[in-house]
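Ticket closed. Logging final result for WbqC-like protein family protein.
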Amino acid sequence: MNQIAVDLHFLPSLEFFAAIADAEEILIFPKDQYPRQSYFNRTRIRLSNKVETLSIPIQGRRPRLPLNQIKIDHTQNWKSIHLRGIQSGYGKAPFFEFYFPYFREIYESEEEYLWRFNLNLLTMCLKLLRWNARLSVYQGDGYAMDFKDIRGQIVPGRPFSDRMHYEPVSYTQLFGLDFEPNLGILDLLFCAGPEADRILRDSKKRLNNR
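Final structure:
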């Protein structure tokens, strides 16, 4: 079985999905420690004049806790900001009306923990892509197990071209003439719909592309 261990990201990037495109089982680890710089609480969308980062506020400052103990700071107005930004950026996208209600429903939940919120979003993304990979949660660290482990690889501050997961395949985006690669999965789903599966599989970097 093709198993791959990943970090649990918030609405992951196209690089993330290209990396797991061939996986039969996706392994995630709630006991891994919260990293200071990661995509655990941030994703990128495209607006009319810029690429915007959407961030989820968390309780406490740089907490030294397992990922599944990180709580969302619901005292901040982040949900409305995110939903307005998504609607502003993609309201006219071809598949927005079809996909957006699924994400809005998860956003409108009162999930306390960021881990569970991200897990719900990832589960929905896999369903919309019609990927049959099993999503498995492991309570240990998994380092003694035999699988491909890319945890800690897909991080902010390093270009995706430095890694061996993603080779951009362009698709029609809403704004501008220049294609913006490696945005969050929302961009691809809203703009390409059912073609998202093919685009992600074609975007998987092969060894002969090095």
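Residues 114-129 form the longest helix (16 residues). No further action required.
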